[in-house]
Hints:
Elements: H1 6-15, H2 18-35, H3 37-44, H4 56-61, H5 94-130, H6 132-146, H7 150-165, H8 174-187, H9 191-204, H10 208-215, H11 220-256, H12 268-277, H13 287-311
Helix pairs in contact: 1-13, 2-5, 2-13, 3-5, 5-6, 5-8, 5-9, 5-11, 7-8, 9-11, 10-11, 11-12, 11-13
Amino acid sequence: MEGRSPGQLMWLRFKRDRTGVVCAWVVLAYFVVAALAPVIAALYGKDPYTLYGQDPEYVAQNPVLDDFGLPLGYFGGVTGEHWFGVEPQFGRDVFTMLLYGMRTSLYMALGVSTLLMTTGVVLGLIGGYFGGRTDYFIGRVTDFFLSFPQQLFFIAFMPVVTAFFVDPRDETPTYFRALAILIVLWLLGWMAMARLVRSTVLSLREREFVEAAKVAGASPWRIVRKEILPNVVSPILVQFTYQLPSTILTIAFLSFAGVGFVEPTPDWGRMFATGAKVAEQDPAFMFFPGVALVVFVLCFNLLGDAVRDALDPKSGR
């Protein structure tokens, strides 16, 4: 009987974890829906930017707000025209706001998490394998960035980064806000991955197969690429599955605090900021974005547990 590779064994163990498989499908569905947001919105016939509550032609046929700017009807104005209701004061469609908000948050978080993982892996491999002064220098840089109180500096750095490149009197373009968020989260977020990889590499570089590669005359680059990197894939993958939902929450926090995405860019955090303002008058506005975020974060965390158990059966629950 032909032997199976570690990757095949991991896949077989993962498929036996029903919770992990279901969560993987849910997470995949989120990314597919987010990618197809413009198509779904076009079929639905609404968009997240039109102020349906202030459009005279639309209001004449389908009034959505009362005299106080609150949604008409039940549960935030849920109707056949607006499946998840409408936004107070402006009457924007909540369903399309959520679709585009998911798109903004998910793909921003995916880009940030990929950059954090790449930076942390490279620095961790270099410091852990070469040691000495190289490891000392990388370690002190890591300690320096770890000394920053992250939540406070997320809020403080965002205006500084945007003001450095954009005149405060001008409106900051959305693409630049996205770039600023990426830079801030990258500068203050790669350290955990670097320390994880470094500690793993330190335990691997003295192993017999690494010593054998050195004796055989393999270059440091080949040893790192062929001998060490394949053995740190497991902790990297597990860490990534926990990093991405954490990054989504951080991006939402920045928008909630008013230093992330702003009007009219749809974003999960901005929807929560609006919901907090109208919580007493229209608590239903927070319901659908809140459920969507909780389900995604829960499923991604459970997926991370399933991946960890598949990669390391001894850690099984």
